[in-house]
Amino acid sequence: MTELWELGAWDLAKLIREGQASCGEVVEAHLRRIDQVNPRVNAVTATLGDEARAAASAADAARARGEDVGPLCGVPLTVKENIEVAGSATTLGIAALKDARAHADAPPVAELRAAGAIPIGRTNMPEFGMRWHTDNALRGATVNPWSAGHTPGGSSGGEAVAVATGMSPLGIGNDGAGSLRWPAQCCGVSALKPTLGRVAQVGEEAGPTPFAFQLLGVHGPIARHVRDLRLAFDHMCGRPGGDPWHAPAPLDGPPPPVPLRVCVVTDLDGAETAPEVAGALTRAARILGENGYLIEEGRAPALTRASEIFTQIMSAYGRVHREQPPVEAIASPGFVRFWQEFEPVWTRAAGEQAFDPMMERASIARLWSAWMSRTPLVLAPIRTRPAFPVGSDLDSRWLADWPETMRTAVAVNLLGLPSVAVPVGHAGSLPQAVQIIGPRFREDLCLAAAAVIEAATGTPTPIDPR
């Protein structure tokens, strides 16, 4: 018999809507799953049990009265610790912020709550969201349920693990440099990085946000099923909050030309692609081709320069204050070591300094727009290599080519494009995934293609930690 925690958000919402399960039963099933599994993976950092039970009880009572309870009524939701949930700490993985409780929900959390979703927990992240492995002094390390010796990814690593293990059917994280898509690749789940401006980044009570994070970062959902991404996305985009970038564009664009062209990016400006990643790309391309998409191979324009401009903008405009406190004063020894090893690599990755990075960004965006006007979808690696062994990112020699391996991920952030990460089978003990990139505000095209891949390959989660 299928347990409630094994079901996705869409299925749970349907069961509740049809009266086959109560909100209370669904919430309790996931709270029990957290109790059983989280001690082994350390993904959920704070359980909102009392609040969730009260919300479920109120929702069940409203349903009994025949009230409109919303399309996500009773669906449990977990939220990364750098997104505001009213009454819960927004820690950013930093010990000094362990009691920094939010007074209000961030706009997408408020929207999902209004649609009936019930926050049940917060999830782990690396300090500042600035490491590709999830560990910090406040909460400790999160464990990849597929292989404890490999990273779960970062910075939304806690969310990816919570969803992969069935502790949550739906999670909210964010992506400023692949931080949704990379953990999805490591943990075998799906994720949507929306177009810049789709989902409000900040609420009206939020403090200052550095320009780099306004431009490069977005909130988005993680789930086990592509249709759950769409269900969440449909209810995350309406509230502008205090975000000046918010753009209330239609969620669906005009019908695309048929057959829809897909460019498979296999040449990443010389970056080496691991055989297992290349195999996932080949399989995904074959599935799309067998389902009516027109597959071509090609190169992404100005890919290396896009990565360099991304690095320059993040370096110059990624701070809240002109003078930052020493990292040793606020971060764990692990993060300090990581940054000491990575800073020279990061500095080299900036390439030749642009006279005006935003001017170059616009030029690159025009190149991509012209390219994608002919091939609207791009099939590419998230990272050109699979999940790495824990501790690898503390070695400067291992880190030396990291920026090259993430070029397609950060180009998407630089240009504000939508992308869906979707699993494509396994290689050894680890899941593999690809990303489907689309034109601005065409998440619908990305999600539709991802659903085709998922239908052919299945969903590898939820799993018990191995």
UniProtKB/TrEMBL annotation:
Matches recorded under SUPFAM superfamilies: Amidase signature (AS) enzymes
Database matches in PROSITE patterns: AMIDASES
InterPro entries tied to this protein: Amidase_CS (IPR020556), Amidase_dom (IPR023631), AS_sf (IPR036928), FAAH2 (IPR052739)
Domain of life (superkingdom): Bacteria
Residue ranges of every copy of the Amidase domain listed in the record: 25-447
GO cellular component: endomembrane system
Pfam families membership: Amidase
Name of this protein: Amidase
Lineage: Bacteria, Bacillati, Actinomycetota, Actinomycetes, Streptosporangiales
